[in-house]
Amino acid sequence: MHRLFISDLHLDDPSSPQFLRFDECLAVEASVVDEIYILGDLVEMWIGDDDDGPLASALMDSLTRTTAQCSVFLMHGNRDFLFKEPFAERTGVRLIEDMYQPDADLLLCHGDLLCTDDTEYQTLRKQLRGDQWQHEFLAQSLAERRAFGADLRRRSQQENANKAESIMDANSTAIARTMSEYSAQTLIHGHTHRPELDNISEQRQRIVLGAWERCGWLCRQQTTQFELQCFSLARHYGT
Ligand SMILES: [Mn+2]
C-alpha cells in the first residue's frame, strides 16, 4: 500500500504557489500512489458547497481529475468543516470522520481534538460543529458567509496571539489516551503547524504534518514505512 497524507494547505487563491504545487502534486502522485488522505484545513475557509468562487471551482477540477486515478479521502479541519456530500459527489472524494483508521494500527485525525488545553477553542468548536449553527450559517447568502469567515479568522488571529504556544499544541496525555483507545501504533495529524516525526516509544510513533507555508509537507507511507517530507513551493512539484 502506497499512501500520501497532507494537511493544512490553507488554500485561498488558485494562482498562489500553494495551489499550483497542490495541483501538480496531485497530478504527479495520482499515478504513483493508491490513496491520498487530506487531513483537514485544505482551504483557509470553506463557506459551503455552493461556493461559486474561483478557488472552489479550481479545487473541484483538481480533485475530480485526481479521483479518476486514485482514491482521495477528505477529513474536516477547523477551517473547512462545511465540506459536505455535494462536494464529495461532485469531486469523487470520500469524506472521512475526524479519527479515522485506514488500518487497525494507523490512526488519522486533524489534530485540533488533541489540543485539550485550549478550552476556549474546544467550546467554540462544539458550537460551530453543531447542527443548529451550521443550518443557520448555510441559510445565509455567500456574501454574508464570506464576511463572517473573514471576521472569524481575524478574531482567532487576535486571540491566538495572546495564548501561550503550549496551549495551542497537542496535549501529550490526550495523545497517549487517544492512541490507546484506538490501539494505534502510528498517529498522523496536522493542525498545530509543528511538523515532526515523534518516536514516542518502540511501539508508537506520531507524525505531525506541516502547514504549507515556507515549504510544502507530506507524509508518504510505503507498506510499513512512514516518511515525512518537505519540498519547495517555489518550483514545480517533483522537479
Ligand atoms: Mn487546523
Report the bound ligands by name, code or SMILES. manganese (II) ion
CATH topology: Purple Acid Phosphatase, chain A, domain 2
- Secondary structure class reads alpha/beta
Q: What does the overall shape look like?
A: globular
Q: Share of helix among residues?
A: 25-40%
Helical segment tally?
7
Question: In terms of per-residue confidence, which ranges show pLDDT below 50 for 5 or more consecutive residues?
Answer: none
DSSP strand content: 15-25%
Describe the strand arrangement of the main beta sheet, using strand numbers. Answer: 4-3-2-1-10-11
Total individual domains: 1
Name the average pLDDT: 96
Rg, rounded, reads: 17 Å
CATH level 1 name: Alpha Beta
How many β-strand stretches?
11
Question: Overview of this structure, please?
Answer:
This protein has seven helices and eleven strands. With 239 residues, it is of the alpha/beta class. The chain has a single domain (2-115, 170-232), classed as Purple Acid Phosphatase, chain A, domain 2. The protein is 34% helix and 22% strand. Strands 4-3-2-1-10-11 form a six-stranded mixed β-sheet. It has helices at residues 17-29, 54-67, 85-91, 119-128, 131-138, 142-161, 172-181; strands spanning 2-6, 35-39, 71-75, 94-96, 100-103, 106-108, 186-189, 196-199, 205-208, 215-222, 225-232. β1 (2-6), α1 (17-29) and β2 form a beta-alpha-beta unit. It starts with a strand and ends in a 7-residue tail after the last strand. The longest helix is centred in the middle third of the chain and has 20 residues, at 142-161. The structure holds manganese (II) ion (MN). Residues 40-41, 77-78, 110, 112, 191 line the site of manganese (II) ion (MN).
